[in-house]
Amino acid sequence: MFDLNNRDIMSSSEAAKRWHKADDYVRQAYRKTPWKFPEGTIRKFGKQLVVTREGMEVVTGLTEEEAANDEHEFLPKTNRTA
After folding, report:
1. Angle, to 10 degrees, between the axis of helix 53-60 and the axis of helix 64-73?
2. pLDDT tens-digit profile of 11-37?
3. For the chain, what is the radius of gyration of the CA atoms?
4. Quick check: helix, strand or coil at residue 61?
5. What's the mean pLDDT when you consider all of the chain?
6. How many CA atoms lie within 13 A of 37 on its CB side?
7. What is the DSSP string of 26-48?
8. Which residues are within 8 A (CB) of 78 and not within 5 positions of it... i.e. 6 or more apart?
9. Residues 30 and 49: beta-carbon distance below 8 Å
10. What one-character DSSP code corresponds to residue 78?
11. Alpha-carbon distances of 62 from 53, 66, 67, 70, 73, rounded to whole Å
12. How far apart are CA 2 and CA 77, in angstroms?
């Protein structure tokens, strides 16, 4: 039996948000490079793409936690003094 409440299974838009990517990141990645997703980590249901945590980690090269930390490295730093 599959647990559809498992946070390791998510819509493509939710995955993009959780990995701090553009809304259409997963759809574009799947359209351009479907072979990068390991078998069984992405599937289309009608018009909806569903992806697993493993699929996102392989395609992005980052865990969800690393993606959250990585986002902050690209924020501009200011040189203001207190």
Report:
1. 40
2. 999 999 999 999 999 999 999 999 999
3. 15
4. coil
5. 88
6. 23
7. HHHHHHH-GGGSPTTSEEEETTE
8. none
9. yes
10. P
11. 10, 6, 6, 9, 14
12. 45
* Strand ranges across the sheet with 9-11: 9-11, 48-52, 42-45
Query: What is the structure's pLDDT at 70?
Result: 74
Which residue reads 């701090």 in tokens?
20
pLDDT over 80 (residue 73): no
In angstroms, the CA 42 to CA 55 distance is: 7
Cβ 22 vs Cβ 14: under 8 Å: no
Lowest mean per-residue pLDDT among 4-8, 46-50, 55-59 = 4-8
Region 55-66 average pLDDT: 95
Strand-strand pairing, 9-11 and 42-45: unpaired
Hey, what are 54's tokens?
A: 């493993």
Residues in the chain: 82
